[in-house]
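Operator note (shift B, R.M.): manual run for UDP-glucose 6-dehydrogenase requested after the automated queue skipped it. Running by hand, logging everything below so the morning shift can see what happened. Input copied straight from the record, untouched. If output looks odd, do not overwrite the archive copy; leave it for review.
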Amino acid sequence: MVKICCIGAGYVGGPTMAVIALKCPSIEVAVVDISVARIAAWNSDQLPIYEPGLDDVVKQRRGKNLFFSTEVEKHVSEADIIFVSVNTPTKTRGLGAGKAADLTYWESAARMIADVSKNDKIVVEKSTVPVKTAEAIEKILSHNSKGINYQILSNPEFLAEGTAIQDLFNPDRVLIGGRDTPEGQKAIHALKQVYAHWVPEDRIICTNLWSAELSKLAANAFLAQRISSVNAMSALCEATGADVTQVSNAVGKDTRIGPKFLNASVGFGGSCFQKDILNLVYICECNGLKEVANYWKQVIQVNDYQKNRFVNRMVSSMFNTVSGKKVAILGFAFKKDTGDTRETPAIDVCKGLLGDNAHLSIYDPQVTEDQITKDLSMKKFDWDHPTHLQPMSPFAVKQVNVVWDAYEATKDAHGVCILTEWDEFKTLDFKKIYDTMQKPAFVFDGRNVVDAEKLREIGFIVYSIGKPLDAWLKDMPALA
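Run finished. Output pasted below as returned.
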């Protein structure tokens, strides 16, 4: 029986291995992590991450050919194929601080693999890593090989949170990069055979190592660039009276462009976009490509500008101050159908409002109070370290109250701020909300989920990203 071990039981490792176990019942799959609490959660009825369909997949295979364990060295030693899905945070100090990936956890994993291995292994990069990481890992393994042969493959994930299980069941493509040597090609074939259990062969793309690593960064950079492009247009729409939804629809009808990722919003978030673009910027700078680096840097700058612009619009609309005012925050996850808050725009928006002394009442159907408190008290990039290395007991953020009901959040509020496009926010009883709010009552829609005209009929002053401004907002311009 082929044995697979995945180091790292996070958003990538857990779901990916669960689906491999489901689709390949003849393969034994072990997911290992040093976090006792995380592994305990994977073995419980309350999984550590929320993802539609994941629960069912895990429960079908757990204890049969899918195992979650803290016995890292045992399972690594026994495995034929080792997926490495560990954290690759952005460096906060030293060379490349603020841009380069910190490969501390990757290097540690590679050294451990070398220490405990007794037979030849295929080691697969599953985390998002900078180009040439495989070369560094090869060097560590080859210099500690003890006569054991290692083949390094790059197999980047292209999962969208909220649809990860569906993406794994029916992927656009599976990308496998390896060495152009007989041993390298044999390793590529071995991993290809795993995916071939359910993925059509024409969707399994095989490349060299560097192309696979760079393709992942490039894909995320292109997607983020589209979001920043439409968000830049949203600012122009507000200034001119155009409607960004109509502009996006017209642009998206062009078959060369297409309609996806053209929804204006308060900004993009998630674990990959910003990190991967910063990584890309650093690689470009290291290779002397200053103009290319500046081009990609602008995608991040527009994203930051959009979040700042949104906060400034809120403050200026509410008589140029939110000090002492209750503001309801609806949605904290970076997008609907996930509890993930990594790099969510909500963090920066909330911090901006807290900086002006607002009182926040936050509701999200999937994000816990502990997570929200932690996110609002953490330094930038801290989120990407393993949980046990993050601040253990975050200080309670004054002026923040986390509630489990949208109507509780909005009661007595001066303004309502929608930051995640949860479906339930589209069907809220806004007349009921209006009646319990301070007047004038404001709605700031960062996701364009509500019908602004209907809300105005109720009596709200409404700001929707990229939509024509009503008279109140025109009289109080936002200074970005």
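Quick read of the result: The longest strand covers residues 3-7. The chain has 18 helices and 14 strands.
Leaving this for review. - R.M.
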